[in-house]
Specification:
single chain; seven-stranded parallel beta sheet; 9 helices; 15% helix; 20% strand; globular
Length: 796
Amino acid sequence: MSPYAVLFTSLCFVFLFQYSLADNQVEALMRWKKNLKSSTNTLVSWNPANPNPCTWFGILCDNDNQVTEISLQSAMLEGPLPSTLKPLHHLTTLVLSSMNLHGEIPEEWGDYQSIKMIDISNNYITGEIPNAICRLQSLKFMHLKNNSIEGSIPTCIGDLSNLISLTLYDNQLNGHIPKDIGRLNKIQEFRAGGNHNLTGEIPLEIANCSNLVKLGLASTSITGAIPSSIGNLKNIKTIAIYDSNISGHIPKQIGYCSKLQNLLLYKNAISGSIPSNIGRLGNLKILYLWQNRLVGHIPYELGSCPNLEMLDLSINFLTGSIPTSLGNLSRLETLVLGDNHLSGIIPVEITRCNSLTDFRVSNNNLSGELPRGIGNLKSLNRFHAYQNTLTGSIPECLGNSEKLGEIDLSINRFVGSIPEKIFSLRNLSILILFSNNLSGFLTPNIGSCKKLFRFRVNQNKLCGIIPSEVGSLKSLNFIDFSDNHFVGRIPSFVSCSSLEYLDVHSNKITSFVPDELPKSLQFLDVSNNQVKGILPSSIGSLNKLTKLSLGNNQISGRIPSQIKSCNKLQLLDLGNNDFFGEIPKEVGQISTLEISLNLSCNHFFGLIPNQFATLGMLTMLDFSHNHLSGNIDVLSSLQSLVNLNISYNNLSGQVPNTTFFRHLTPEDIVGNEDLHFSNDTSNTAHHHHDIPHIMNLITLILICIAVVLILFLIALAQRETEKSDVYSFGVVLLEVLTGKHPLDSIFSGESNLVQWVQGHLQRQDDLSEILDEVLRGRLVHTPEAREMLQVMDVSL
């Protein structure tokens, strides 16, 4: 055969071979396409009529027209993962992330021997990671995050000797982290957080991964201590093992991780002290150790971490003083030390942290005055120091921190007036100063705080009128002026269209006009003042109110029938006033009343309206000290009542023969000469007979409280909203049992009713102390009731 013939034959053979390969590649890809659905014609270019797949969407090839990469990230395709790609002998990259793929990882993937990167993250993949994956000796990057993959991490994972990055987080993996992970001596990133059923301890062999840069095991059920061998990870930059079950001490060897930048160990059960050689970490930027069981002092050596930007040691048991060395941290932006047992003063050296934006030291035992140079913190946005024993006056220079958006100095011992300059802070949205000894006047300059959202100065000694300029603050949502010495009238808040909470109780207020209050209002408390005159019919315009408390004033006249328009009311307190006339039937038509209705100590007469029979959710009702007459049969249908006081009226007839009415005490009906029980003038005989029924009621209520607290803790962990039906129902029960509303002035700026009850349990206080005084006297004097109170403690 001539040389030309040989050449011609060879060229034909090469051509036919390449055509055959191209044909195989097309067939493999088209077989997968048949299983995919697309509403956007994403793969319209995948067409056998075009036999060169290198021109298809998402396909890349080498110089020999061999498919090397399939990249369809974020393509709107639905279907299974491909199991037909074995003919793509040169495939190195398979990126199928953020699509709508589902099903399991095919066993056939173990045959893709050239593959270097697999990324199927952010899909709906289920099933287990097949052992066949471990045959991919060329694999460098495997991203399976954010799917629904189950089972354990294969023990053969250590066979992937070239693996650099393995991300498995946010799946449903379980079991232990295999010790073979230590064989991955090239791995730089290992992240398996968000697998809540991942258990066991951190394997000691992890220390053999000498090139590891990022270790993420957050939000798992991993237990045990951090191994001291962690110090062998000389290249580690991020250790994120938060929200897990880690215990034991932080190993001092952590100080040998010289490149460490981010150490995130919060929300665990870590005990012991913070090792001082953390101060050797010159590259450390973020140190989050909050919500653990750490004790001892804050290491002075922390001040030797020049790059530290965020430090949060809150919710621990740390003692001693705040180290002055922290003032050396010129790059520090966040310093959170709250909820510990720190003492001493806030060191003046802190005012040298010029980058500080978030400074929180609340709920400690700090004393002394605020450092005079605190206004030097020009970047400061949030300053919380509530619930300490800080003294002196609030420094005027605090107003120099022009970026301040939140100030909470409540529950301290500050004296003097509120500094004028604070009201010049144009970004101020939260100002909370309650429970101090502040005095003086509120000045009109408060009208400059245009962004003010939450303003609490209750439980102080402030006096004078409430400046009308407060009513120009259109962003206001929450105002509490209660327990002061304010006089005069409540200014107009019509412009405050977002205002939901207004509390001015226990002052010397003489008048308020409902027309001057915004329709957005949900809580209004003007009780214990000196308000005179009638209750205007315009009260009905406040139809979003859930709590209305006007008790202990000098309001006279009749209850306007327009009160019916307040059809979201859960609590209505008009007690201890000078109302007269018949109780309007419209009060009984407010079917949402479920916490309390107090009409006591007025001059009401006539019959109890029949409409009261529809108040089936009402738990507390007080008609005492009026001139009501007739029988009380209409109340027999109120199945939710826990407390009823009808004493000192002119009521008559028989007390209804129901479980609730049979256990009324004589004090509840005294002063009604013609009102009697069905077979005696006393219910003493029935009282002891009905104890099991009473105990059942108490049991139900207390179990509900415990359940609500547990649900609250779960909601915090899952970052759920507090507006769920279960939560709201539980809070109503707590209001009934404690006699407090959720935003009572006794609660600090970051606390609420549920947390207050939980705090009593954690401190092992007398559990009966959480009950309203009226209920406490009734329910805690029997052994059975005491046992029921223990239900709460056991449940938590």
